Amino acid sequence: MEDLAAIAATIRKARKEAGITQADLADLAGTSERTVRAIETATGNPSLGAVVAVANAVGLRMAAV
């Protein structure tokens, strides 16, 4: 769960630094505002594709290790 919380915090921080709302990010990522909210709070069960799309939309890249 710590990894999920770290991803959520990183995405939320990047969005805020970019000065965009959750709704804006959802539009950029091609997903719903509810999904963005779930990702940023590490709740629900968003798909990996949605997480990657949201991360990419704020300039972050995800990599498997």
From TrEMBL:
Tell me where in this chain the HTH cro/C1-type domain is found: 11-65
Q: Which residues form the signal peptide?
A: none
Pfam families to which the protein is assigned, alphabetical? HTH_3
A GO molecular-function term, please?
DNA binding
Which SUPFAM superfamilies does the UniProt record give? lambda repressor-like DNA-binding domains
Q: Which CDD domains match?
A: HTH_XRE
UniProt xrefs under InterPro entries: Cro/C1-type_HTH (IPR001387), Lambda_DNA-bd_dom_sf (IPR010982)
The name of this protein is Y4mF family transcriptional regulator
